[in-house]
Amino acid sequence: LAPGSGLGAAYMDSSGLALDGASLAGMEGGHMPAPLHLLNAKPYPCGCGRDWGCVEMYTCIAGLPFLLAEKLREYPDHPLAHSSLSPKERALALRGLAQQNDPMAQEIFDFQARALGLHLANLAMALDPQFVIIGGGLMDPHATSAAFRERYLKLVWKTAEPYLWDSQRRNMQIVPAALGDLSQAIGAALVALYTWRAANAA
After folding, report:
1. What is the pLDDT confidence band of residue 179, given thresholds at 50, 70 and 90?
2. What three-state secondary structure class fits 133?
3. Could you give the domains of the chain?
4. What angle do CA 157, 176, 47 make, to 5 degrees?
5. What is the predicted pLDDT for the residue at 23?
6. pLDDT reported for residue 18
7. Which H, E and C letters describe 54-120, residue by residue?
8. Is 87 left (phi over 0), alpha (psi -120 to 50) or beta?
9. For residue range 126-153, what is the model confidence (pLDDT) as tens digits?
10. CA distances in angstroms from 91 to 6, 68, 70, listed in the order given
11. Which whole-number Å values give the CA distances from 123 to 19, 21, 32, 118, 120, in the listed order?
């Protein structure tokens, strides 16, 4: 799972091949509906056109302007409430503020971590993965601090854990992507390699 501008998602089986589906639209996990009742959230409109509250709107940059607008009602004196920046620029400022221990910004990323944790638990019911790799900009060591990444991952796991089966709690591991922003590119190259090998094995 790679939260960034949207939510990238992929599932690799033990042979290294990706779940792509009959129309190559498999694992469009970012456009599954979020559990709004557990998040106490309203359905934000997604760029895909769906109105059921796509999970990427609660976990990624795409939804930050909505989350910020709601949170500023609780923090009317926050500097961003009176900023001349555009809504998108204000949203992009949140990551730096969270790493400076700004309470409002931290609450927003804590919300996103909980949303991703619930989504992870939902996917685990169908896919039962051994490893869950979290990538995207939030896990980039050049963009976020170790403390920020640790807090985020711990909250993802804490939120997902109650909804997992006992065997999953014992065996599933949530780890940060080790290759940073190159993870998706390297993964795509490996999928192409493994697919070619599988096709030519016979």
Report:
1. confident
2. strand
3. 2-200 (3.30.420.40)
4. 80
5. 86
6. 79
7. EHHHCCCHHHHHHHHHHHCCCCCCCHHHHCCCCHHHHHHCHHHHHHCCCHHHHHHHHHHHHHHHHHH
8. alpha
9. 999 999 999 988 998 888 999 999 999 9
10. 14, 7, 12
11. 13, 15, 10, 9, 5
- Judged against a pLDDT cut of 80, whether residue 182 lies above it is answered with no
Q: What is the dihedral of CA 133, 138, 140, 141, to 10 degrees?
A: -110
Q: Give me the residue label for tokens 């589906």.
A: 21
pLDDT in tens, 110-123: 999 999 999 999 99
pLDDT at 202: 64
Give the tokens for residue 81: 């409430």
Tell me the angle at which helices 103-127 and 64-71 cross, rounded to the nearest 10 degrees: 130
Per-residue model confidence (pLDDT) at position 198: 82
Please state, in angstroms and rounded to a whole number, the distance separating the CA atoms of residues 59 and 57: 6
DSSP state of 139: G
